[in-house]
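Hello support,

Our group uses your service weekly, and this is the first time we've seen a run hang past the timeout. The protein is tRNA-specific 2-thiouridylase MnmA. I'm not sure whether the cause is the sequence or the server load. Input pasted verbatim:
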Amino acid sequence: MRVVAAMSGGVDSAVAAARAVEAGHEVVGVHLALSRMPGTLRTGARGCCTIEDSMDAQRAANIIGIPYYVWDFSSRFKEDVVQDFVDEYSAGRTPNPCMRCNERIKFSALLEKALALGFDAVVTGHYADVRTDEFGNKELHRAATWAKDQSYVLGVLTTEQLAHSMFPLGTTPSKAEVRAEAAARGFSVANKPDSHDICFIPDGDTRGWLKDKVGATQGAILDRSGNVLGTHEGAHAFTVGQRKGLSIGYPADDGKPRFVLEVQPKTNTVVVGPKEALDIAEIAGSTFSWAGLDPVASGIAASVGAPFVCEVQIRAHADPVPAVAVLRDGELVITPDEPLSGVAPGQTAVVYVGTRVLGQCTIDRTVSAVPVPAAS
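Update from on-call engineer: The timeout came from a worker crash unrelated to the input. Re-ran successfully.
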């Protein structure tokens, strides 16, 4: 097959591209330029899309012996990832920009361009596994090593995108093995640290960055009964589960710390309460997708609207939790066997059945496991 290898400049994508060549594919390396102002993206080990990363990718492509190009996706990245991040926080939700980048850039914009140019698939260095069932249907599964598994951030892939995606590292037992292979191949990135954090916030100060983008307007901090406890300088600076920075000034009646339970951007208010009120008994989202066959076609659900047993994961590095899910009134409604902690609207809930990624939804609403007390 003719494939595009998305080369970030890291060790994983370099080894993935090399393995694709050795598997007999015709490979072209592509680095995604996500900003026309490189200083606005993180540098060194904390980034993934800088000039130095592009140079690292090119050196790896030269060693592999494949053509290498830089494709400019800066406009799409600014609109679909950066602006989405601002809009979501402005609406009181907590987005995952890496998931949006996978969804809208790497497996939408990049794949669309690759297919338009006559390529058959996109290769990345993600740790996940694409399998084919006995009837020829593609399925997305966890990687062989759960410690490095990245299937959560790929949960947004659609059935069509999955059919044109390749993850050569999915069955690799460990990241150490990938680094050893990179060193044996002579890649300079063999010991390059993993990228992390948000690439488009250069100094890592998310609160300060959002303040510049959204502005600061004073609002009220309320308890769950609606009593005013204090003020804040902008609701966008708070996330569900946050404890520090509330500046209420006096303890709760029970002397226990208080946590952000809800952010209400329309009224610019922040609701706080005890830690146990962070426990969530139900989550639901109207924007959902399936990575492969849907639950009914897979035989997982008896019929449309019938509940099915699954596991749900709400963060990239969280443990999956047993749950029951059902499509009801246009929403994917998920009820965990045990309450989830600190879930915020805007997060992504990825649904698994065994190792298979069944699909995902963006969380629109949550139901607390702890009733709201009567107003005092």
